[in-house]
Amino acid sequence: MKTLVNDNTLIDLSTKRYWIGKKRMISLMFVTFFFTNGYTQSLSDYLAIAAQNNPEVKATYAMFEAAMQKSPQVSALPDPSLTMSAFGQMIETRVGSQEARFSLMQMFPWFGTLSAKENAANLMAEAVFQNYLDTRNEVFFNVKRMYAELYELKKMIELEEENLSILTTYKELAITKFRNGKGAMVDVIRIDIKRNESLTNIQILKDRNYPLQVAFNSMLNRGVEDVINIPSSLLIESYQDAISDDNIFISNPKLVKLDKQKASFEAQKIVSKKEGLPMIGFGLDYSIISKRNVENLEMNGQDAIMPMMTVTLPIFRKKYKAAQKEVDFMLQANDYEQEAVKNNLVSTFKLAEFDLIKSGKLIDLYKDQTERTEQAIKLLLSAYSNSNIDFEEILRMNQDLLMYQTATATEIKNQFTAQSKIDYLLSKEE
User: Fold this and answer.
1) Is the model more confident about 201 or about 430?
2) How many domains does the chain have?
């Protein structure tokens, strides 16, 4: 799935949420349309389903949605306070009795405090979004890994069934030679032993298919009985041994998340400084005055309106200094965590790179060995038909052929898994 937004830059979070939600809806509609019209599911379709249905992915996206709600909370002004007083015993003034009093006050944080809080909240929401991306990418990798295991299993079943068919042909050949007096019955027995082994292996492999099917469908959060379409081959990109740039992990969500967190902590440091400055409040005091029974009294019974201003005095500095130190330690922890994540990414990448190259070399070896073994079997079969050579050598070579073929399928799975691991580490888009 290709993201419609740039995940490495700070952008308007509401816009990002709109496009992600829009994209997920369009993707789901597209996939649903194709499936309901009889189209075959591919790996990219399964990845789209996982992105839509996987509970881990949905949980981390919900956390991102929750983090986005922090910004309007911290950037809002404090609620104004309204005080109402009614006097049981009237307070006499020169112009009349004071019957009731209303006071309204609004406090304002120091200049830039609210914008700094909003910036810190937005950056932390960006970090949570990167966590969502990392979870989604990890689920994609697990889907690919399980998909490769299903491919390997399918290939092994096909190879065992093909081997069983070959052994049946060998049995017919051995029986024919025995009837003609040119072969031994022990050859038929040896072939039956191998056929029984092959039948048992086929059954065990088929029994293994169901647990893998359940695991795969569970990652897609759909029915465990849903059919999985496995291709006859896996597409593996040609590997270029030129990836050595120190910044190859620059788009990895784990590191981007830590960058966003660090920026959020820096913004929080500004917030803690500004919270140590005074808050200013402006208000209005309104008093209801009743008239006095006095003639020609100036301003008799006129209500009183009085503007007010208040200033907080942040003189207890320990809490503000502690807030500053807290942010400093969080920044220090972030630097250490970044270093640890980078080291882990490099080591994991190098291991995956080794596995990818190793599997490629083994695949080439096994394919060559397979061709040579097939040639040897043809020569042995020709010699067996024309002479009384021992059939055991043919069975041994046939077992070697099966071993090379299954080993090739296993290394194709390993190569695809290693490539998927590299794509995950480099955050290649699907």
Assistant:
1) 201
2) 1
Domain at 179, CATH number: 1.20.1600.10
274 pLDDT more than 80: yes
DSSP 8-state class, residue 430: -
Q: What is the pTM of this model?
A: 0.82
Q: How far is CA 53 from CA 34, 150, 219, 263, in A?
A: 17, 21, 8, 32
In a domain, 59, yes or no: no
What are the tens digits of pLDDT across the range 383-429?
A: 887 776 678 889 999 999 999 999 999 999 999 999 999 999 998 87
Residue-wise DSSP of 188-239:
HHHHHHHHHHHHHHHHHHHHHHHHHHHHHHHHTTS-TT------SS---PPP
The dihedral region occupied by 7, where left means phi > 0, alpha psi between -120 and 50, and beta the remainder, is alpha
Query: What pLDDT sits at residue 122?
Result: 96
Determine the pLDDT at residue 341.
95
With beta carbons less than 8 A apart as the criterion, state whether 45 and 230 touch. no
Q: Which two tokens stand for residue 280?
A: 């200013």
State pLDDT tens for residues 278-322. 999 999 988 877 776 666 666 666 777 889 999 999 999 999 999
Q: Which residue reads 């490769």 in tokens?
A: 148
Sequence-distant (6+) residues with CB within 8 A of 353 are 243, 418, 422
Residue 221 lies in a domain: yes
3-class DSSP state of 81: strand
Report helix angle 318-386 to 253-275, nearest 10.
180
Residue 406 makes CB contacts below 8 A (sequence gap 6+) with 155, 156, 159
Taking only the tens place, the pLDDT of each residue in 340-374 is 999 999 999 999 999 999 999 999 999 999 999 99
Q: Which residues pair with 83 in a beta bridge?
A: 103
Domain that holds residue 344: 112-277+317-425
d(CA 310, CA 83): 15
Q: Is 364 within a domain?
A: yes
Phi, psi of 312 (to 5 degrees): -80, 150
In a domain, 41, yes or no: no
Is the separation of the CB atoms in 104 and 81 below 8 Å?
yes
Say if residues 346 and 255 touch (Cβ distance below 8 Å).
no
Distances (CA, A) of 284 to 104, 132, 219, 303: 5, 48, 61, 13
